[in-house]
Automatic annotation (TrEMBL):
Keyword Membrane attached: yes
Transmembrane helix recorded as keyword: yes
Record key words, sorted: Membrane, Transmembrane, Transmembrane helix
Name of the featured protein: DedA family protein
Membrane-traversing stretches: 37-59, 71-92, 129-148, 160-182
Length: 192
């Protein structure tokens, strides 16, 4: 006798063997049809900012398609959870930075004086990387790379967080809104 409350299994491959990533992605997507879908999306959103290889949109898209009237709620909750995960990823990046800088004996106060630039290496990375963090928060870049990278290069926390708020809000609202208003046809061309 099988347990009816278990998570549905990922669909079997027709003739090709699925990679571990694709299997994981399909298992996460299968969670979208369970009563725990919202909780799963929030957990995936948090850990997406630090280490999880599957984006929360694997759950968000089927959830919005199943309940289109809740698109805004899902987008807002996913954004907030993703920002919490981003802060966790940023903290991990600062730990990596501290370890790498001391282990590799890197001097972030070293001056760069080339091409009309006169600033320390730490200033160049930390003060300007937030623009990249903003772009990568919107684009289909793994958010964990943005968050950990920002912490590693010492982007000021307020700049990282502002970039993450803007970027993740745009991304979650866009994906959720497109799925709400364009429906199933959008899924064919929307890559999340």
């Amino acid at each position: 006798m099988s347990d009816t409350t278990s998570v549905p299994k990922a669909p079997a491959a027709s003739s090709e063997k699925l990679s571990w990533y694709r299997k994981l992605y399909l298992r996460v997507e299968a969670l979208s049809s369970t009563k725990h879908a919202l909780a799963a999306m929030l957990v995936v959103s948090v850990v997406d900012g630090s280490f999880f290889p599957v984006p929360p949109f694997a759950l968000l898209v089927p959830m919005v398609m199943a309940q289109p009237k809740k698109w805004l709620r899902y987008a807002v909750m996913g954004t907030v959870a993703s920002l919490a995960g981003g802060l966790l990823g940023y903290w991990l990046g600062t730990l990596i930075n501290a370890g790498a800088v001391s282990f590799l004996n890197i001097d972030l106060n070293m001056r760069v004086q080339r091409f009309g630039i006169d600033a320390s290496l730490g200033d160049l990375l930390g003060q300007n990387f937030w623009v990249l963090a903003l772009l990568c928060s919107v684009l289909p870049t793994p958010f964990k790379v943005v968050a950990i990278g920002s912490g590693m290069v010492s982007v000021p926390l307020d700049r990282f967080f502002l970039a993450a708020i803007i970027g993740r809000t745009i991304r979650f609202m866009a994906v959720s809104g497109v799925m709400r208003f364009a429906g199933p046809t959008a899924r064919k061309w929307l890559r999340v």
